[in-house]
Amino acid sequence: MAQSNRSMDFQFRPWRGPPKVRSLWMDNALAREGGGAPRAFAGDATYDVCIVGGGFTGLWTAIRLREFDASMRIAIVEADLCGAGASGRNSGGTGHWWSKLPTLLKALGKEDATFLLNKSVSILDDMADFVAQNDIQCDLRRGSSTWTATSPAQLGAWNGMLKTAEKMGIEAPYTYLTKEQLREQFGSGPYYAGIVEGGAMRVQPAFLARGLRKIALSRNIDIFENTPVTRIRSDAAGVTVETAQGRISAQQVVLAANAWMAHLPEFRSSVMVVSSDIIITGPIPEILQERGLANRPGSRNSRLMLNYGGKTPDGRVYLGRGGGTIAYDAHIGPEFDYSPKQAKEIEADFRYLYPELRDVPITRGWGGPIDRSTIGLPWFGQLSDDRIHYAIGFAGHGVSATAVAGRAIAARIMQRTDDWTATADCLWRARQGSFPPEPIRYIGGHFVRAAVLRKELAENAGRKPSAVDTKLASLAPATVTDIATRE
Q: What CATH number does the domain containing 387 carry?
């Protein structure tokens, strides 16, 4: 590979240590492994590729690189444990970018928007095949997923996507649910309309992350956990990744730390860090059967602070919500691991959406940081030193988007010209806009979040929100879903 003449020197923020509250998913994954001390890095070493971050993006990238080159020396350095970040804290919903179709068309035009959309769909089968071939036990299940309206104000939220598909001459993979089907699937909850797709995929995300780690280790990829990166420097000879206990010299480096690298100058204007928070019940399969909720599909609604949720194979019910805690200047504090305030608000959502379960206690909660981009889609690229690659902006459906990232970054490192490098090019060209600088972003974000919450609570109660709240709510940043303007 040709060497770059550019040089860089930047520092990561000090690592505050592992979270005091881990997700239930991660606890279960670590318990299943039965212990064993992780390997930390110390000393000096040389690799062809060093990947900073041991979550989905880093693991997929390493595995795909190994498929290209059996002799490549690859290292992953992770501040905590592989899968302990966003990869092991999310809902496990694994989706595509159909709900972003209006954004894709506007940014890229019909041909490239269709191409990118199809790649986001095909990656699901790609992931499922890999999981099956490598016998990763991650509770993978495929079935229907429903996009719903849980207040009258949300009716028709998907119309923009459906109209865009019609305009493009492509068939959207959704069908409308009748009122009878809604009632059969969602019980007596406030479900006013919905569209459903088949073939959606869900996993236990920490099981998947730890399974990928196991595969990577079996393929002679060195993984160093409990190894926070402190600094990255580059010169004509290569790139140096510094940790508290040593240095790794590499010809190529991949930044795959997601929200934990949003503070770097290259990303500050285009990425903001917010939390996504989840609460969950204990196992209640008998109650679900008795109260008609045993067949309830995974779903998300059409709020700006959207709720997502479903049930686990052992009969737990979980509900999450995006856009909770807002980080100042991308500082990720302990409230991103668990926030009593966010948990209380989401429990109120739970009681609204699951009236049949009003007496069922919530037994656990956790949170995680999201690196939300300006358009609600990730992008993959290279820094001014083009030996340093990155993926960032996983605003939602990150489980599958990271698999796309792994394919795309590996192809770039190998200097291939194929569909995956074309995918990265399309996502790069879709970038647009910027967030206000701090402290305007932080202060304004709290005003907007409060307005969104008041507006949506009023809509849930059947009241008309104030004009001021409606106007402020329109300033909320993009999410994984393009919601049609409500008339």
A: 3.50.50.60
Q: Give the chain's domain count.
A: 1
What confidence tens digit (pLDDT) does each residue in 265-320 have?
A: 999 999 999 999 999 999 999 999 999 999 999 999 999 999 999 999 999 999 99
- Token representation of residue 195: 């569209």
In this structure, is residue 426 part of a structural domain?
yes
Please report, for residues 162, 210, 353, the alpha-carbon distance to residue 40 in angstroms, rounded to integers and kept in the order given. Answer: 50, 17, 44
8 Å CB contact between 451 and 344: no
Closest CA to 277 of 337, 341, 320: 320
Which of these ranges, 4-13, 114-123, 177-186, has the smallest mean pLDDT? 4-13
Q: What is the pLDDT of residues 11-26, one digit of tens each?
A: 999 999 999 999 999 9
Q: Domain limits at 27?
A: 9-90+206-270+375-430
Contact present, 10 and 390 (Cβ < 8 Å): no
pTM: 0.96
CB distance 204 to 316 below 8 Å? no
Length of the chain: 487
Whether 412 is covered by a domain: the verdict is yes
Please compute the mean of the pLDDT values over residues 56-83 and round it to a whole number: 98
Distance CA 228, CA 241 (A): 10
Angle at 288 between CA 284 and CA 293, to 5 degrees: 145
Phi, then psi, of 57 in degrees rounded to 5: -60, -50
